[in-house]
Amino acid sequence: MFVGRERELAELQDALKSQRLVTLTGVAGVGKSRLARQLVDLGLVTDAANACWADLWQLRDEGLLAPLVADACGLSDHTPRMPLDVICDWIGERELLLVLDSCEHVLAAARNLVRVLLDQCPQLRIVATSRELLHLEEEFVAAVQPLPCATDAAELFLRRATESGHVPEPGDLNQVTELCTYLDGLPLALELAAGALRHSSIEELLRRPRHELSRAADEVRPLMPRRHDVLRTALGWSHELCTPAERLLWARLSIVHGHFDEPLAVALCSGGPLSPLDVQEALAGLVDKSVVTERRGRHLLLDTVREYGRLWLAELGELDTMAQTHASYFLAQARQADATWTSAEQTGWYRTIKEAHPDLCAALDHFLAHDTDAALELATLTGFYWTCCGHAHTAQLYLSRTLKASDRQGPVRQRAVWALGLTHLLQGNHATGTHMARQCLAGARATEDATALLRAAYLQAMSDLLQGNPQPSLDLLEHALEYARSKGAEGRGAGAGAQEHAAEEEPAAQAVMMCRMLRLFALTGLGRLEESLAAATSLRAECVAMGEHWIRSYADYQMCVIALRERKSELSLEYARSMLHAKQQIGDTFGIALGLDMLAAAFSANGDGHSAALASGAGQRLWDAVGHPQRGAPDVAPLREAGEDLARRLVGAGTYESYRSEAAHADPGEMLAWAAGGESPL
Which superkingdom does the taxonomy of this entry point to (predicted)? Predict the structure, then answer.
């Protein structure tokens, strides 16, 4: 909820016309983030498409700052460059507004990042929110003050109380200003006080003593000590008015680093005196008291509220226990995601793992300190998802760390090496990726593990295909698939006494389907189009029946390539759109970029140069985000180039470039909606 601040917004708008770094500073709860959000939402500095927002409050590791900012910019880098270099290259001469919210958590790293960005990106403007200044020469400081007590503060309090269904009695209204004054007009304190009206009148709140809690481990540099104490008082009121179950849930929820939903709260926080039903009821109570913020069906503890809960968690002696519970929960989630990957649950897991990124990082950090074998497993299970969702650098970082830290041998370690090799290949580091593929092949052959052989074959075959060698790729994949079939037959034919052993030998369906998918690329690359189309049709039908999207999208991709080569233009358009639909379901930027390239070629084949230019321009924006020079297998490049040449001839070279440029600068969401069959926004 946003009230007032018209003068501050106007001043910030004016400041950003001449200043490239504006830091909004002030005590916790004064409304720095909301002011910055309003500045962006109203488009006072730039339109939404040219504004990026990075929530730094999620971070506990300065090394993850640049990857988080890259993600906020919509980058899904597939190169071996460092994330800060990727950000600088992508922004370049763009006119962009970057908001860095809650810099105080990683102040030194934020200071260094801002210094580099301002130096290398001349059109970039940055708004930082922080309880401390960055202390940079270019910094323009805007001290955010509390709301005027008799006007805006009172309006905010009354609006929030009305929303919560606890409107003050008419006789209490003349005390609203007194309460706002007592709380120094701090927006967060006012919202918490409004939530407290569920159990107390305004008069009772005014009679309550200031709340104190030891701050020895949490003195976060208050700029205005009294106002800091005021916020502590409001937090204390809320805490005292909570039921015992709500207090315990508040403390336990403080272990969560990002957004959460009710099932996660139940899974993490049930136990001891809290039953699952208790958690559900307590969560509703915390939302009602404004302790937990609800946004679009998801929940969040605001930064200061989380800090307060963390203090109580430590006081209760549950900090270590909850950290272990938290890490174990996300390891179980990763196992479940892996087990159901080739099913209708796949798209949901992609979203879940993307949204849980800060909590997965926290879980990995905990395991690295306490259980390196569990860390290795978690890094392995998340590595593939992260690589596909634009977190290849983070996947590589944790896979490297856990492989060094853990002595664990066997299938998990082999798979970790495979996942690390995949990150290198997809970043264009073929030498390292190929070296790891050969390590995986040697290990799989030594252990006669069919699943490990399939994964190793996939990695080596991908390396071969990316370097234009489809025949050795096909040979290796067919050998691995045949070996897996024989192993599967052995397992299914085992007697009752060997069922458990047979289950262990049954090759993983995921690995089988991934190799079948890559076999399509090899067959198409060799010109064996009829075989490839038959295999792709069969594989796609299986994926549709399962509700699987990732493999299905690449079957569509190959069918589009085949249709283009066979000059079946209408079919090529159908397959390209189907691929894009599947890729959008899982948020695979690299795959969407490939799909837009195919869509452009298909439009050209259908004689629509205008649409081909738009698809190409929309794709270029995503290729910039991916940063990868390799657009799929080399044999596809002639199709893309031929489509571009034809489109230029259809509409004229100058017109083609004009359309393409317009699409590259249009809203990406609108362009993808058009690509899927909607109306063109241009």
Answer: Bacteria
Q: How far apart are CA 309 and CA 565, in angstroms?
A: 61
Sheet bearing 139-143, strands edge to edge: 51-55, 96-101, 124-130, 21-25, 139-143
Dihedral in degrees, nearest 10, Cα atoms 416, 417, 422, 428: 140
**Element holding 579 (H helix, E strand):** helix 569-586
Residue from 378, 266, 335, 271 nearest 370 by CA: 378
- Per-residue H/E/C for 50-83: HEEEEEHHHCCCHHHHHHHHHHHCCCCCCCCCCH
Quick check: 234 and 192 in contact, CB under 8 A?
A: yes
**Hey, which residues does 295 pair with through a beta bridge?**
298
* SS3 call for 142: strand
Question: Which is nearest to 153 in space by CA: 234, 213, 207, 45?
Answer: 234
- Helix (H/G/I), strand (E/B), else coil: 294: strand
For the chain, how far is it from start to end, CA to CA, in angstroms? 34
Distance CA 63, CA 189 (A): 33
In this prediction, residue 501 carries a pLDDT of 42
pLDDT tier, 382 (very low <50, low <70, confident <90, very high otherwise): very high
CA-based nearest residue to 187, from 167, 160, 215, 206: 160
Kind of pairing between the strands at 139-143 and 298-300: unpaired
Please name each of the domains of the chain with its CATH number: 6-143 (3.40.50.300), 149-321 (no CATH), 331-513 (1.25.40.10), 538-675 (no CATH)
Residue-wise pLDDT tens digits, 607-624: 999 999 999 999 888 888
What number of other Cβ atoms are within 10 A of residue 585's Cβ?
17
Helix (H, G, I), strand (E, B) or coil at 651: helix
How far apart are alpha carbons 244 and 85 in whole angstroms? 49
Neighbours of 132 (CB within 10 A): 15
Rg of the chain (C-alpha set): 28
SS3 at position 453: helix
Strands 51-55 and 21-25: unpaired
Q: Which tokens belong to 238? A: 């809320």
CA–CA dist 647, 645 (Å, integer): 6
Stronger pLDDT, 594 or 196, i.e. the higher one: 594
Q: Confidence class of residue 237 from pLDDT cuts 50, 70 and 90?
A: confident
Which residues, other chains included, contact 424 with Cβ-Cβ below 8 Å and sequence gap of 6+?
80, 396, 430, 432, 433, 436
Rounded CA-CA distance 419/424 in Å is 9
Are the beta carbons of 356 and 333 closer than 8 angstroms?
A: yes
- Side chain identity at 322, as an amino acid letter? M
- CA dist., res. 437 & res. 319, Å (int): 41
- List % helix, strand, coil for the chain (3-state, nearest 5): 70, 5, 25
Q: Does the CA dihedral 103-19-116-626 come out positive or negative?
A: positive
User: Closest by alpha carbon to 66, among 115, 135, 19, 125?
Assistant: 115
Taking the C-alpha atoms of residue 316 and residue 311, their distance in angstroms, rounded to an integer, is 9
Give the C-alpha separation, 146 to 152, whole Å.
10
Q: How far apart are CA 195 and CA 289, in angstroms?
A: 4
User: Could you give the residue ranges of the DSSP H alpha helices within 197-318?
Assistant: 202-207, 225-241, 244-253, 262-269, 276-288, 303-315
Return d(Cα 618, Cα 468) in angstroms, integer.
Answer: 27
What is the pLDDT at residue 404?
95
Q: Which of 478-492, 507-521, 618-632 has the lowest mean pLDDT?
A: 618-632
| Mean pLDDT of the 431-449 span | 92
H or E stretch covering 178: helix 176-182
